[in-house]
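Ex. 9. Protein: Laccase.
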Amino acid sequence: SIGPISSLVISNQALAPDGFSRSAVVAQGSFPGPLMKAAKGDTFRVNVVNKLTDDTMLRGTSVHWHGILQQNSNWADGVSGVTQCPIAPGNSFVYQFTPPNQAGTFWYHSHFGTQYCDGLRGPLVIYDPHDPQKYLYDVDDETTIITLADWYHKPSPAITGIPSNDATLINGIGRYPGGPKVNLAVVNVVHGKRYRFRLISMSCDPNYMFSIDGHQLTIIEADGENVQPVTVDQIQIFTAQRYSFVLNANQQIGNYWVRALPNTGTNITTSFDGGINSAILRYKGAPNIEPKLIPVPRNLKLLDETDLHPLTNPAAPGKPFAGGADVNINLDLGFNATALEFTVNGTAYEPPSVPVLLQILSGAQDARDLLPRGAVFTLPRNKVIEVTIPGGVIGGPHPFHLHGNTFSVIRSAGIDSPANYRSPVRRDVVNIGDAGSEVTIRFRTDNPGPWMFHCHIDFHLQAGLAIIFVADDVKQIKQAISPPDSWKHLCPIYDALPPSA
Ligand code: C2O
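Predicted structure tokens for Laccase:
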């Protein structure tokens, strides 16, 4: 069966989610975009219709389904310059994909320039009626979604220098310093019930310290992967990460602050400040008022990533020791202060005009032919790849995301953090930490196609902090990936390319 939304119309609309009106990029007329939901095993068939008209922002578009593995459907991954040409204004394109074994919390966003910062972002949830984990939490309701987003008063192409967000939006609503007291988002609960809340960071830049006053959070999922339950008071959630946690509505009937404190922006508040970076958890029967202005409680127990362990098949691929992968890749991140570009192993990524997948399908014989040179890494088939990334490059901590695969986090951020091969968390976005940190991940190349690996701070991706892993050889990709003709015609250049060899 197909999820309820089969069309996403992308258009420009004036929005004032924090009381300040600006032109934005919206999906189906709303920000965040509508929830796309499906049951495990469903096929998604989504017609993305580009009705963008505002020249102060990008007018092409493409939509990435963040965390969906796109097994043998790399062409539907939605990355402009890697897996497709952007959809031109006035055109449309149907994405079709079936995530066979995936369930959990995902999202979708534009993957063209910094367009998602202008609004094109929304939640995507795959429900699992036979969730093997249900016995662990036994919740009464699993429909609550909490999205966190940074918001800017300027269109993203007009942002110069270091971007500084104006407001934190929780479920699409927020306040900014000096702005009007707009009504905050309300998350409703009934006393005595247990809930699965899904927390999604749709941030373009900041990470958030997330907590709900008076309530503990029992984490059961990270980035679409079930984890053994871990109970904390606070989560530092990085750009594009997701968590499910169980919340027990067992406190006194009343109103409680939901807080998401960003690490960057004009809205950083050290003391608690009248509903900025906040929403309200409201019990049924509580008055329709805001909670008292009290500071963030002290001594909150913060989630430590190394306490997260997969619920099933916990071991990392490869052998359980250093050097136990088939291929080891060390990345060296840099910043070129003259060009204002980030580099990976000396190269700043710039999207090629012919998408990498089209280069492959239309005849490139070898990775050395693929553009952009230096940013494309070809990986052998069905091997274990280990990637080590140092923290510390300017503008961090940087959250790195791999398309097409989840990975095991052998070493999490932190000075001298220990290696874990037996039960490391699996996820698709990892914080690489600050100077002195060295994060190591592993994954197996069992999904053919070019997959981007990049910093998910969108302004950093725009400034070159990305590479492409191509798994695996050209012949195998040609056998596995067959995009529809509509895909080829997204690229005006298509008919001019030499015929496939
Ligand atoms: Cu959430 Cu490259 O994407």
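Check your answer against this statement. The two ends are 37 Å apart (CA to CA).
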